[in-house]
Structure formats: C-alpha cells, structure tokens
Input
Amino acid sequence: MSLLNKIKESNIYASQWIVLLIDISMVVQTFFLANLIFYNFKLKIYDTFLFHQIPFIILIAFISFIIIGSHKGVVRHTGVNDAINVFIAATLLTFTLGLTVYINRNLGSNRIRVFLPHSLSILLIHYLLNVIVLIVSRFVFKRIYQHLISGRKTSTNTLIYGAGDSGLVTYATIANDKNSKINVIGFIDDNASKIGKQFNRTKVYSSKDITESFILNNNIKDVIISIQNIDNISLLEISDNLITKNVKVKIVPPVESWIDGNLNVNQIKDVNIEDLLERSPIKVDNPTLKKEFYQKTILITGAAGSIGSEIATQIAQYDYKQLLILDQAESPLYDLQQDLKRKNTINFETLISDIRNKERLEEIFKAHKIDIIFHAAAYKHVPLMENDPYEAVRVNVKGTKNVMDLSIKYKVDKFVMISTDKAVNPTNVMGATKRVAEIYAKCLQEKSTTKFITTRFGNVLGSNGSVIPLFKKQIAQGGPLTVTHKDITRYFMTIPEACQLVLEAGAMGKGGEIYVFDMGESVKIFEVAKKMIHLSGFKYPEDIDIDIVGLRPGEKLYEELLSDEENTLPTYHEKIMIAKVKVLNCSVKYDSVLQLCDLKNKSNLEIVSQIKKIVPEYISNNSMFEKLD
Output
C-alpha cells in the first residue's frame, strides 16, 4: 500500500507528541534564525554560545507548550482557536525566557549567562518568528493533508448558495471531512457587497452569473443551499431556477438539527418536494395546552395512522395522567409503541381494538376514566370508499357514532374529531360520510355535557396513501407518474403542523365548533409531479413522463374548506378559524343518522341515497351514484 493510500485510509490522528516534537524543533530553528538576523547574518555559529543555549530553549519551550496544550489540537482540523493557543504558547515561551534573562542579569552569575540568550532583542525577533512559523506551519500541514486525501478521489463540483455564516460553516465542514467527495468551486450570493470577493480563496458569484453555460463549463453537478431560516417562497424560487439548469439541489438543515451544534456532511440532504411545499413552521406557544392535558387521561383512536401517531408523539411531551393509543392495525401500532418507548414516554397503554366493535370499546371506557378523545380513526381513500359505501358508513359514521355515544355515557369532557376538506360540498362517499359524522356530533352537542369539536384540513404531506409517496414510488420504478387531471389542485400541510393545530383547536373549543385551518395556497398536482422528477435528478419528459389518467370516481378538481352556505369567524390563532355553519334540524338529522347506521340488507344505492338525504349538498362526481342526484 502506498504512503498516499495509508494517509487516505488512516483514521488515526497524528500523535500529539509528534506535534510537540515538531513545534520544539521549529522553535530551535527560529532561535538560530533570530540570532542570524540580530547579527546581520554575520554570525559564526562555532564562535558563539548558541549550542549551550539550545537545551535551555528546548526546556522552556517544552514547559510552555505543555502548560497551554497547543500540541493537542488536530492539525488537519486547525482553526482559529488552535492558532490562538499557539500564539499564547509562544507568548508564554518568550515571557519566560525574557524574565529569566532579566533576573539573571541583575541577580545571576556570569556562568549561568552562558546558557541564556544574550539580548532581549533576540528574544523579540524569536517571538515574532515563532508566532508566524508555528501558526502558518499548521495551516500549511492542513492544506497538504487535504491535498493528499483529495488528490485521487473522484469529486463532485459544487456551488454553495449563501456566502453568510451558514455558507462558510458548510464550506469548512466539507473541507474538513476527509471522506467528502464534494469540491466547492464557488459561492452564490445576491448581496452586492459580497459578489466578486473571495472567502477561503473561493469566489462569490451572483445568481445571475450561474447560467447553463457556466454550469456546463465548470462541470457543476450540485448546488447546496445554505441559508438559515429561508422562507419557502425563496426556497421554491431558488430551486425552480436551479433544477432547470440540470443541477441537483441540496439543502443544509436548520442549526437546531445539527449534531451537538456541529454540522455534519451527511446532514446535507437533497431538497425534496416536502421542503418546497412546506410553509413557514407554525410555533404553537400556548400555555393553556399544559393546563389542557395536565393529569388527564387521553384516548387517541386511529393512533397508528399518520395523524394519530403524530398527535400521540406531540401529546407525549406534556404532563398527562395516562395516554391510550388505540388502533386495529397491529403492526403500525406496534411501531408507534416502540417509538414512544425509545423516547422514554411514560404512562401510556397500547390498545388493539376496532371502533366498529362497541362492546370492546365499552370495556375500555369502563376501565379508564377518559377525559379527552382525539378521534383520528377513519377510512379516507376516495376511490376505495366509492366502491364500498357499506364499509365507509360502518367506520366513518357508525364507528365514530360508537365512540361519541360512549363519550357521553362515560362523561368524557372533550371529543375532538379529525374531519377533512372533502366533507365540504362532498362529491364522494368518503367525504359525505365524514360530513354525516360532523352533523351527528353537532346534534349530540345540543343534549350532552361532552364538548364535541371538529377540525377540518386538507391533504398532509407524506401521509399514508397521499400523492407524494405514490410519486416517489413511481419515480423509483422509472415512471411514468400518474396524475388524474392536468388542472387538479390540492391544499397541502405538513403532518406536525396539522397536528399542532388540532391540539390548539381542541384546547380552545367550547363544544359544537367546526374549526378550519389556513392551508395556504392550493397547488397544482401536475406541477408537483414535474418538480419531483427534477428533484430526483431526472428530466421531464425525456427521462420520466407524466400520464393524465382521468379523474377517479368521486374526485373533484378543487377542494374546499368551507361550503357555500358557510363563512368563518376568527380565533386568537391566525391559522385557525371557526366555520359558521347553517342551522340544522337536529331532531330530523339525528333520526336519519340512526337509520343510516342500520345497514342490514341495504344495497350500496340505498346506503348512498340515505347519505344524500342527510347531506343534501352531496352531489356525486364521476361516479356510479350520479343517477341518484
């Protein structure tokens, strides 16, 4: 194995004693040089006492470096702090030598003077030389090391977007990582005062300079966005501009995600569609949440799902009495259980149960004095429920009714239901059944002390069965991506954000409210598909195409958060509104829901016909049930 390969593959730092030995040898050499300079390069070494003075210089240098510990720094990671330590050690060395010379001149003997420098001027020259040589040598060795380990490896030419503090930290992290295959050839920044300057001998370019020809001529493969607290609009604009130039866009995570406050090269990740669609994070700082959950027993149905598991994770941070996580899906519920255990969550119980089984549910209600319920259990896939209204009603209506009825019977304080924007002017069975559940909750509110609270929001990024994981799978398979309509739009929200707002709405609810969340701007699914193709390093349509397959049964082009007969009232949270719904004839609606839940010997047409009577705004779209309208 060659010396170069040994250096590249070695994970062993140079011994601190070797560093100390090299430092001392440099001190000796600079001492000779200081004498030469002092004597105007006319010094005849064999006529001087230099050789008598060297042991004393070595001794004082050894003591100074040991006291300061300047030899303990890892040379290949030399930084400002290491340079400061060397400066202090050199200062201590000179101070000790100077003090010794001064004391000896006044109190010592001529015999001792033979072993000491002859002039304080020599010591001053020696000091300046030490500071320069010892510090510069460290950076030289660091540079040589970096050159050796990067000399033969295949590197990827990269630009760093952002020449601020975060960008410089990113550059240093890459430079100090011996396994990194990233070759930073420049920074990008739109700050006029930085353009054209160099940081660490690396030039800063304007974003206008980064043309396709610039990318091609410099063989640039990646651009790392290293701007802390970048807003999503800016991130989207930067990414859109770069991905059209056939470069891969990566991003540095927020400082709070760095490991022990230090950035690691492995934390630099590809920009994905979630980064681009995610809006500014909502920071819920509501002291009433602590009070809301303090010493309460909380039940989460559908806890193994995307929303239920995140609600469980967030509630686990509070000082509750007991947390009950319930689901009929065994494997994902087990995964949630293990995740909570890894996070040292206490006082939680895992319950395997189906909300359609009222007897089993009642056993749970009897065994635990439940204070708050977050009801996330539901069927949510539009095409599947369009084909099987029977099961949609059994779970979304009758199953929800079971939990609501038991909440009243066992005096639960709050019941918070997770609904959907598809319940507004529904065009499919799934959305219509969720609207029926909302109506039943509203009717129960009029005759119970339990506070029934409904929350509505649209699609959440990364949830089970959502379009984003589907696109990722299709890209991995080489495409094509399937979109139902070129103009179809959807609202998107991150799972943590949605669940934060659910907790907030539950805390503020007094009973009977339907809360809607600010979902931001709706986005075209077709544009999402194109961005995902580019972000995955492919070209549309050359590498991966998009097929328009037509609207699915029950699907509509545009989702809504409010029906035509509703408007909103503000709350103290700018992202949460109260839907002002039309007045219901609850006595009629209540009886109609009970009839709907009696599913014996009913066909799909009869079931859907009954749903349409309860929800008159339910107009089927692209569905076999359009003939009922």
User: Anything to note?
Assistant: Residues 1-13 have pLDDT under 50 and may be disordered. The chain has three domains: 3-149, 156-271, 287-628. Residues 120-150 form the longest helix (31 residues).
